[in-house]
Design a protein that fits this description.
Strand content: 15-25%
Structural class: alpha+beta
Radius of gyration: 31 Å
Strand order of the largest sheet: 1-11-12-13-16-10-9-4
Length: about 550
């Protein structure tokens, strides 16, 4: 009965199934992929030819371990060794042909072709040092063949040695190239979070006439707003103590109306997303470490990165002097795997966002141009270690190790990705405006882009109990950063490049609803002097008739 009252659900019922099934038809493989590590497709020539620009870009994003010039050096060395290997293989091929001719000797070499055969071998002797086997008797032919076999063995050994060097250099190439972050949009502000640029403000900050653009204005209202955690405890909608006893600090239980709030927010976000053309998904909560890495998240600690660096580059000092920077990713393994002495090559990780499994759904695929953009809305639990978090951000449910989130992901043609980013941000703004939140849109500076983002916008809601803005969502265009690492391509238009060869798609992501942060903003923004909290109108269809949260009813 409640579902029929909501216009978004009406759109969901009448959305044609073909618009969903078309995306599933893109998956062409009928077999499960083998459990192998992903191999990124880096443009080493581009890195070599633009090394200084890439280095300056990395430094502007506060990335200090990227070495694009080293990638260029390794690429040149790789090409030289590859050329040597090809020369040896050509020589081995010539020896093989000579052996074949000798094996067919005797009667198979007719007298009328002997003169021609002699001439060919004389020419080969001059240019390649080959043996003239014309007219040899059986014993002579055997001696020449033995000599050729010996030369072939030497050439094969040389090839094997060079291929070992090539394998080592290729591993170092991939490792060093993976450290290079994405380029930054020219309009991106330089510096840390304090340099974020305010693009848009929505709402009235509870009828306060002046909207602050920074943290210096603390006199926002004559009303003393309560902190979200005090409100949640008085309403009885969250239990952090039980969460700590069962799972550890910063885990929680939703209870009563709190559980309904989470479900209502998920339904609201999914209904609006489907109406906007996003296909709903419920994703795995785990992903392989290589997939997490390919999406721009660090599945290893700084010390582990340093150890890997020492193994690949042979620098033992790096393993000793690793930064030890904490990763925000949880790794998962079975009890049986824990008993093994060696760690799994590609262990599972708990996902930090549904962005990871949604983007990775299309790994190693070539998509049809007509299928793009692919727009997905994914529901998942999100797990973040939140190492280093301190102070009031750890109070209550503002910063948790586990929470529920609806994430939007788009795969787009490169020429359309910026327009898709605008579409995602506009969707977010409408979502939060209809919830009644006061929020501001920020263009994030270079230090806040992470490894994958080309351009990133954050949305912060005003949280009057905290007397501060608090991040509730972000939206990013990752261009081809993730697609190169996951092998997601689309066929190019022949009319444009004359070949129709595949190019890498652009991937984008945006938060629809990160449940705890929205609840914090709602509780603090819609509280009443008597301790009750108003439920936004757009959520009421899923709140079982509740329009107010009051202690005796929650």
């Amino acid at each position: 009965m409640l579902a029929k009252t909501h216009p978004g659900l009406h759109a969901l019922r009448h959305l044609r199934p073909a618009s969903w099934s078309s995306t599933s038809n893109i998956i062409r493989s009928s077999h499960q992929q083998t459990r192998t590590l992903l191999q990124a497709s880096f443009d080493y020539k581009h890195i070599r030819d633009n090394a200084q620009r890439l280095l300056e870009n990395a430094h502007s994003r506060n990335v200090r371990d990227a070495q694009p010039h080293r990638v260029g050096e390794l690429y040149n060395e790789f090409r030289q060794l590859t050329s040597q290997v090809n020369e040896y293989r050509s020589s081995l091929n010539n020896i093989s042909k000579e052996l074949g001719a000798l094996a067919r000797g005797g009667k198979k070499h007719s007298q009328q072709k002997q003169h021609q055969h002699q001439h060919q071998h004389q020419q080969q002797e001059k240019t390649q040092g080959n043996v003239d086997a014309s007219g040899l008797d059986e014993s002579g032919r055997a001696a020449v063949m033995a000599d050729l076999h010996g030369r072939a063995s030497i050439v094969k050994a040389s090839i094997q040695g060079l291929e070992l060097q090539l394998g080592s250099i290729e591993a170092r190439l991939r490792y060093e190239a993976a450290k290079i972050p994405n380029l930054s949009h020219p309009d991106t502000p330089l510096g840390d979070e304090s340099h974020a640029r305010t693009v848009h403000i929505n709402g009235n900050l509870h009828n306060t006439p002046t909207v602050p653009l920074d943290e210096t204005n603390s006199a926002l209202s004559d009303v003393e707003f309560k902190d979200h955690y005090d409100l949640a405890l008085s309403l009885g909608i969250v239990d952090m103590e039980a969460g700590a006893r069962v799972a550890g600090s910063r885990f929680h239980y939703w209870r009563g109306a709190g559980a309904l709030l989470e479900l209502a927010l998920v339904q609201y976000a999914m209904t609006r997303a489907v109406a906007a053309g996003f296909v709903p998904h419920i994703t795995p909560d785990v992903a392989r470490s290589s997939v997490v890495d390919a999406c721009g998240f660090r599945p290893r600690s700084g010390a582990e990165d340093a150890l890997l660096d020492s193994q690949i580059n042979g620098d033992s000092a790096a393993a000793v002097h690793g930064s030890g920077e904490a990763s925000q990713i949880y790794r998962v393994m079975s009890v049986a795997e824990e008993s093994h002495k060696e760690a799994a090559a590609d262990p599972l990780c708990l996902v930090a966002t549904a962005e990871i499994p949604l983007v990775a759904m299309r790994q190693q695929q070539i998509l049809d141009r007509q299928s793009l953009p692919i727009s997905m809305a994914g529901l998942s639990h999100c797990f973040r270690a939140e190492a280093g978090a301190r102070g009031r951000d750890t109070r209550g449910i503002y910063r948790l190790h586990q929470f529920t989130k609806v994430e939007l992901v788009t795969l787009a043609l490169p020429e359309n990705s910026q327009a898709e980013l605008t579409r995602l941000v506009d969707f977010q703004k409408s979502l939060y405006a209809d919830l009644g939140l006061t929020f501001r849109l920020l263009q994030m500076p270079t230090y806040e882009l992470g490894a994958s983002a080309y351009q990133k916008f954050d949305i912060e809601a005003w949280m009057p109990g905290r007397r501060a803005w608090g991040e509730i969502s972000s939206a990013s265009n990752c261009t081809d950063y993730q697609a190169r690492r996951l092998g997601i391509r689309v066929r190019a238009e022949s009319a444009k490049d004359g070949s129709g060869s595949p190019v890498f798609v652009h991937t984008l992501n945006a938060t629809a609803v990160a449940v705890p942060r929205i609840v914090v903003a709602m509780l603090e923004s819609f509280q009443r002097p008597d301790g009750s909290v108003a439920v936004p109108h757009v959520l009421r269809p899923w709140m079982m008739g509740m329009d107010m949260l009051v202690p005796e009813r929650c």
